[in-house]
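# nightly structure sweep
# worker-07 picked up a monomer target from the shared queue
# config: single-sequence mode, recycle default, output format = structure tokens
# input follows
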Amino acid sequence: MQNLPVIIGRHTKRLRKQQGWTQQALADHLEMSLDMVGRIERGQASPSLATLKLLARVLGTQPELMLVADFMPPTSSLVRERAYARLHDLLSAVDDGELDWVVSILNAVIRKRTAP
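# output follows
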């Protein structure tokens, strides 16, 4: 099993590259040193909770997604990742009754799409 700094580092590097940024560009966005960004990406430094939240926000994802080894298939796109993050935010704001309604709507969309 991978350790947490390595998992965070891999997500950081992958998301940075999807943005088309260099390590220096990410460091500039984070107001952090280039050395620290490199250490995070290599799993040699464990970011604080505040830094993890900032990393996630700057890279367009949710902090909790950066803690999971394989939170999505390797072929998923940045668009899909951002959609998952947006759905997570939206679903956090609904009550249980509304959540059942949202699930019903999604099921109907999927059934319609897969119908012959």
